């Protein structure tokens, strides 16, 4: 049974009411995105509120919106935000991305998303977990995500997305159709040289050569965290 909470150095994530729990790859996304100069940040599909709170910790002045379609998760995220040091700068919006688009929000300097991705796998018996992990017709699609980001991303802004490599290839095609292009890619693996687990790709409106960087979670011959991983998560993980 998963823990009902995850404690970081400066905030705690209660996750009992959320289908998808705190995971390592999402923490890497929150720590690796270039957020320090952004004034407006959006977390799409915030779940527990993890990425929104990591963004708030890293950028002491940004205003952050966190949108979540699943009502229980939205309530959990709102509670986590309320219990954090940054409740005055983070707003949880319960509803769909389409509903947010209808309000014509001001442009965002950075958009974060850890989207649903198991497009070809069997459906989960849990409806909430299915919504969190599958690109179902009644949930967020890659096309909708790309089109929203292209429309509401400020000039010079970035969209940072976390996906497994095959799904990232699919999303990159959708993003290009919407006028967003991969610019930087972090390739996450368990160990140096092992099969990539996830790609964290940063998109912008300008097409250019993609800068690619590997990141191994563990050292090659042990379960110890790699020096690069430890440096990236040092401001968040209690273990460091």
Summarize the structure.
The chain has helices at residues 24-32, 50-58, 71-82, 97-102, 127-133, 142-152, 165-177, 227-233, and strands at residues 5-7, 12-14, 40-44, 63-68, 90-94, 108-113, 153-163, 181-189, 196-204, 211-216.
The secondary structure category is alpha/beta
**Sequence stretches where pLDDT stays below 50 over 5 or more residues:** 118-138
The CATH superfamily label reads Vaccinia Virus protein VP39
CATH hierarchy: architecture: 3-Layer(aba) Sandwich
First-last Cα distance: 25 Å
Helix content: 25-40%
The overall pLDDT, averaged over residues, is 92
Element order: H for helix, E for strand: EEHEHEHEHEHHEHEEEH
Q: How are strands sequenced across the largest beta sheet?
A: 5-4-3-6-7-9-8-10
Structure, described:
Helix content is 31%, strand content 26%. By secondary structure, it is an alpha/beta fold. It has a single domain, classed as Vaccinia Virus protein VP39 (Rossmann fold, 3-Layer(aba) Sandwich), CATH 3.40.50.150. α2 links the parallel β3 (40-44) and β4 (63-68). α1 packs parallel to α2 (50-58) and α6 (142-152) crosses α7. The chain is globular. It catalyses: adenosine(37) in tRNA1(Val) + S-adenosyl-L-methionine = N(6)-methyladenosine(37) in tRNA1(Val) + S-adenosyl-L-homocysteine + H(+).
Task: Produce the secondary structure layout.
Elements: E1 5-7, E2 12-14, H1 24-32, E3 40-44, H2 50-58, E4 63-68, H3 71-82, E5 90-94, H4 97-102, E6 108-113, H5 127-133, H6 142-152, E7 153-163, H7 165-177, E8 181-189, E9 196-204, E10 211-216, H8 227-233
Parallel strand pairs: 3-4, 3-6, 4-5, 6-7, 8-10
Antiparallel strand pairs: 1-2, 7-9, 8-9
Helix pairs in contact: 1-2, 6-7
Main location: cytoplasm
Domain Methyltransferase small: 37-128
EC number: 2.1.1.223
């Amino acid at each position: 049974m998963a823990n009902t909470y995850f404690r970081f150095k400066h905030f705690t994530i209660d996750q009992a009411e959320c289908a998808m729990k705190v995971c390592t790859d999402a923490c890497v996304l929150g720590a690796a995105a270039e957020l320090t100069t952004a004034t407006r940040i959006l977390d799409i599909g915030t779940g527990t509120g993890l990425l929104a709170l990591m963004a708030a910790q890293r950028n002491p002045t940004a205003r952050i919106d966190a949108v979540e379609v699943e009502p229980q998760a939205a309530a959990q995220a709102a509670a986590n935000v309320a219990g954090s040091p940054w409740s005055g700068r983070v707003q949880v919006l319960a509803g769909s991305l389409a509903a947010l688009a209808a309000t014509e929000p001001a442009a965002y300097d950075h958009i974060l998303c850890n989207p649903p991705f198991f497009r070809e796998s069997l459906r989960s018996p849990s409806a909430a977990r299915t919504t969190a992990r599958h690109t179902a017709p009644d949930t967020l699609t890659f096309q909708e995500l790309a089109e929203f980001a292209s429309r509401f991303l400020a000039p010079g802004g970035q969209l940072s997305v976390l996906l497994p490599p095959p799904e990232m290839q699919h999303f990159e095609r959708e993003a290009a159709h919407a006028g967003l292009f991969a610019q930087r890619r972090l390739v996450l693996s368990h160990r140096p040289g092992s099969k990539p687990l996830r790609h964290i790709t940063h998109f912008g409106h300008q097409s250019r050569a993609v800068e690619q960087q590997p990141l191994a979670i563990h050292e090659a011959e042990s379960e110890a965290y790699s020096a690069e991983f430890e440096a990236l998560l040092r401001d968040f993980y209690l273990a460091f």
